[in-house]
């Protein structure tokens, strides 16, 4: 009797194909049970999806990488300033939008995924996380991605998708049938995935647009609130990634190029705030807002330098999207509290682990230290 026979309780004469079908049936039942368990009661209630389970799943999918962020594991620290032009002050009383205010900013550019030594593939989602230090101990922390919408609507869907998209070690690609099954129950994710796939992939970090994806609320000094999404749009004209670049052997090409560029000159992005209307979904990051919505350019981010992840740079920052100043409030998007809780759990785990150098702690392509 084979192990398969033993697992399925099948009689010894049963063929392998029949056995596989029986096993698939058992798997479906198990998955169904897990689903019931997961959905019972919603995020953070007993027996339901917890931050620890989300972080466990990152570890299950990516393997253990002690000391690193459980997602967006490969990154480089950046720093600079944000200069407000005053146009945001009518929308939000946050001091960061006062006319003429220049705020010191620390940040981190990264690639999505839990692999700290993965090669810089152009199609991997790029991120920019920022921490604005404001007067009177206030802070604004935000983490953004270079995609038009987020692939899932709820924390539960995020949890399922992590496993559904896990690459098969033999092929390096996700299992098609598993993904198909995920999209069948999450048609909103299938639509979002099509929008994400259709985006233009630019040549690097410096010409990428980074979006909040989640909606927030701006609160003005008269109490008026406006639903918003924001994006940091590069001053540099976006260039599509070239074929030569795609063939680049350097596995840190995106990070190293940014570091070299920042040594040469500062890089600028405009903070463009999109004003939502009553009909625009604030609780569903898979849905784009109509393209004709009013936008307001509220100021300029200037990045002036990059440095490897260390204790005194961005390594030990938790870019919790709910650390917000008075004047910026969360929306009803269920991803926000889930993100906040999962980032805290990831942070707590990595803070207690021994650190090894980041893959982008070395030298730039021209040999100079970053
Ligand atoms: C339920 C949904 C999500 C979960 C569970 C999740 C989970 C995580 C975790 C665990 C980390 C590592 C945090 C750390 O150790 O510091 C992370 C990092 C990050 N996530 Fe998410 N994420 C979610 C949705 C999003 C969304 C919607 C965005 C944004 C647009 C986003 C952007 C980022 C960024 C930019 C980082 C890197 C921050 C850094 O550089 O330190 N995530 N995410």
Automatic annotation (TrEMBL):
Its EC number is 1.11.1.-. PROSITE patterns: CATALASE_3 (PS51402). It is an enzyme of class 1 (oxidoreductase). GO terms for cellular component: cytoplasm. InterPro entries: Catalase, Catalase_core, Catalase_sf, Catalase_SrpA-type_pred. Heme binds at residue 343. SUPFAM superfamilies: Heme-dependent catalase-like. Its cofactor is heme. The keyword Amino-acid biosynthesis does not apply. One of its GO terms (molecular function) is catalase activity. The active site is at 72. It comes from the Bacteria. Keywords: Heme, Iron, Membrane, Metal-binding, Oxidoreductase, Peroxidase, Transmembrane, Transmembrane helix. Pfam families: Catalase. The chain crosses the membrane at residues 21-44. The keyword Oxidoreductase applies. Residues 38-364 form the Catalase core domain. GO terms for biological process: hydrogen peroxide catabolic process; response to hydrogen peroxide. Belongs to the catalase family. Has an organic peroxide-dependent peroxidase activity. This is Catalase-related peroxidase. The lineage of its organism: Bacteria, Pseudomonadati, Pseudomonadota, Alphaproteobacteria, Hyphomicrobiales.
């Amino acid at each position: 009797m084979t192990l398969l026979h033993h697992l399925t309780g099948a009689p010894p004469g049963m063929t392998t194909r029949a056995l596989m079908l029986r096993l698939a049936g058992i798997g479906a039942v198990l998955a169904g049970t897990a689903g019931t368990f997961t959905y019972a009661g919603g995020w953070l209630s007993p027996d339901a999806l917890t931050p620890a389970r989300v972080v466990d799943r990152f570890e299950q999918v990516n393997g253990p990488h002690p000391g690193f962020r459980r997602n967006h594991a490969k990154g480089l620290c950046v720093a600079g300033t944000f200069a407000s032009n005053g146009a945001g002050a009518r929308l939000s009383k946050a001091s960061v939008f006062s006319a003429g205010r220049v705020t010191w900013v620390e940040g981190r550019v990264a690639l999505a995924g839990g692999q700290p030594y993965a090669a810089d593939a152009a199609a991997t989602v790029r991120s920019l996380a920022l921490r604005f230090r404001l007067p009177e101990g206030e802070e604004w922390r935000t983490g953004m991605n270079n995609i038009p919408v987020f692939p899932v609507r709820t924390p539960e869907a995020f949890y399922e998708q992590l496993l559904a998209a896990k690459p098969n070690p033999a092929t390096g690609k996700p299992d098609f049938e598993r993904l198909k099954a995920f999209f069948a129950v999450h048609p909103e994710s299938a639509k979002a995935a099509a929008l994400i796939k259709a985006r233009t992939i630019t040549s690097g970090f410096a010409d990428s647009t980074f979006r909040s994806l989640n909606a927030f609320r701006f609160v003005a000094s008269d109490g008026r609130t406006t639903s918003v999404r924001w994006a940091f749009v590069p001053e540099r004209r976006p260039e599509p990634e070239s074929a030569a670049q795609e063939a680049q052997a350097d596995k840190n090409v995106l990070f190293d190029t940014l570091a070299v560029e920042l040594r040469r000159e500062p890089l600028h992005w405009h903070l463009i705030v999109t004003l939502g209307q009553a009909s625009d979904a604030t609780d569903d990051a898979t849905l784009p807002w109509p393209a004709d919505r009013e936008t307001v350019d509220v100021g300029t981010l200037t990045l002036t330098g990059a440095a490897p992840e260390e204790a005194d740079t961005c390594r030990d920052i938790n870019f919790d999207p709910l650390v917000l100043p008075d004047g910026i409030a969360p929306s009803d998007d269920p991803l926000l509290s889930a993100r906040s809780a999962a980032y805290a759990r990831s942070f707590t785990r990595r803070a207690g682990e021994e650190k090894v150098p980041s893959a982008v702690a070395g030298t730039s392509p021209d040999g100079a230290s970053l």
